[in-house]
Recover the amino acids of this structure.
């Protein structure tokens, strides 16, 4: 078993970002949109269509600084402390799932692109994938994200 310390010491190159599956997008819609009572999209299908048509953009740290709601943790410990506040902790997000994401980057496994909302004024907000973005930047990888255009954030 690979230890987190070993993962963080290696030079990692990653280019295996993918668009989440329709079922994963529907789950993201329910968790990140409906449960938070947002009104960007009428239905899961409208959301899925928008994601598939959206721009996919590599995000740098300077652009990341402009995205509202990003945690920008700089270490495993800081990220673990953050996720302990999530409703999904520990059932769906925990130490094991975090280490699996670090390991996935190291081994080049397909990784769902995070989703960022961008309004007509250019303001941006994280919609889903904050943890993947944090880990990506911690490992020196600029993440590729889906930019969803919305009227207002």
């Amino acid at each position: 078993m690979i230890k987190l310390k070993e993962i963080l010491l290696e030079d990692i190159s990653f280019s295996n970002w993918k668009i989440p599956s329709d079922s994963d997008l529907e789950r993201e819609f329910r968790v990140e949109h409906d449960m938070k009572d947002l009104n960007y999209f009428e239905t899961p299908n409208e959301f899925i269509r928008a994601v598939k048509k959206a721009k996919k953009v590599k995000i740098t740290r300077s652009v990341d600084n402009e995205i509202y709601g990003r945690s920008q943790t700089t270490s495993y410990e800081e990220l673990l402390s953050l996720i302990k506040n999530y409703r999904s902790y520990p059932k769906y997000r925990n130490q094991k799932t975090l280490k699996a994401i670090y390991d996935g980057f190291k081994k080049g496994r397909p990784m769902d692109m995070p989703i960022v909302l961008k309004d007509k004024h250019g303001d941006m907000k994280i919609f889903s994938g904050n943890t993947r973005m944090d880990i990506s930047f911690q490992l020196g990888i600029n993440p590729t994200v889906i930019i969803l255009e919305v009227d207002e954030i």
